[in-house]
Write a structure and sequence with these properties.
76 residues; 3 helices; globular; three-stranded mixed β-sheet; alpha+beta; 33% helix
Length: 76
């Protein structure tokens, strides 16, 4: 398993780069999950589909989810 983490200042395109990287990895045949932990989610916009806490299939080999970090920390 390989983990790629996108971090940095807000508004620089991390989510867009993560979504594009996820698409490329999936096209290369790797099972890929793109997760957003940003409180102001935009992964749904990048994939042009609704996202939720549970991973949703975006296309072959690619899933996406928008996690609520506070909910995860609280164990809910």
């Amino acid at each position: 398993m390989r983990v790629i983490l996108m971090t940095g200042k807000g508004g620089v395109g991390k989510t867009s780069v993560a979504a594009a990287t996820g698409i490329r990895c999936a096209e290369s045949g790797h099972k890929t999950l793109v997760l957003s932990t940003d409180p102001v989610h935009s992964l749904a916009d990048s994939f042009d589909m609704e996202m939720s806490h549970e991973p949703r299939k975006v296309r072959e080999n690619l899933w996406g989810a928008e996690l609520d970090a506070l909910m995860e920390l609280e164990g809910n």
